[in-house]
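Q: Convert this sequence to structure tokens.
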Amino acid sequence: MKLTVYHDGQYWIGVFEETVGSKLKACRYVFGAEPADQEILDLINLKMLKLLETVSSSIQVKSEIKRPISPKRLARQAAAEVRQRGISTYAQQAIALERESRKQSSKIQTKAEREEIA
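A:
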């Protein structure tokens, strides 16, 4: 599981990414103003699992070959990840897919409500 917090120009946003096997689930949480450390900890401890359970769609991810990593390379990768900004394209695809599925279900529900009123 991975949490990325970034500023998109207007809001602070947290993106959760969870990889299970070769499937990736992602969900987005909008903080609004810059979140305090306690707010992020509360999100992780209290809301994270509920948010990931609401995600119904996932995306296929290529699996990587696991080989032992030297400590120096691991340190460089950690430093690069700290410098990295934004979220993965896989997470963006998963969020877009979830948004589309919610849009479709909303359209169906709205149509049924209109027919019921008519």
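Residues 2-117 form one domain.
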